[in-house]
Amino acid sequence: MEAVDHFMIAAVLLLLTLALALFRAWFGPRAVDHVMAAQLVATSGVGVALTLGAAKGDASMLDAALVATVLASVAILAFVRNGRSDGEGPKDKEP
């Protein structure tokens, strides 16, 4: 088996993980479930970009993976900074 075949198998498995995470993001009962599934989608997307880039020898896929990683990190930080998972918004601080 050629090395490219191994990368393609890994990419297909990551795409399957991505599909399952999208299902969980759509049908998750709580906001935390939605965010964690979205984080898994972003991580799987980065993995797919890296494996396809390695299979084809395309360095621009690494750039796309780095941008996706930064965007996913900012998204999860925004959710954590909010501090609540019930959808009511930020906590009000009492004086």
What does this structure look like?
By secondary structure, the chain is mostly helical. The chain contains three helices and no strands. Helix 1 packs antiparallel against helix 2 (31-56). The termini are far apart. The mean pLDDT is 80.
What structural keywords apply?
single chain, 95 residues, mainly alpha, 3 helices, flat
User: Could you tell me the number of beta strands?
Assistant: 0
Mean of the pLDDT scores? 80
Whole-number total of structural domains: 1
- Helix fraction by DSSP (H/I, runs of at least 4): over 70%
Rg from alpha-carbon coordinates: 17 Å
Distance between the termini: 67 Å
What is the H/E string? Answer: HHH
Low-pLDDT segments: none
Give the structure's gist in a few sentences.
This protein is mainly alpha-helical and 95 residues long. The protein has helices spanning 3-27, 31-56, 60-82.
Topology (SSEs and partners):
Blueprint: H1 3-27, H2 31-56, H3 60-82
Helix pairs in contact: 1-2, 2-3
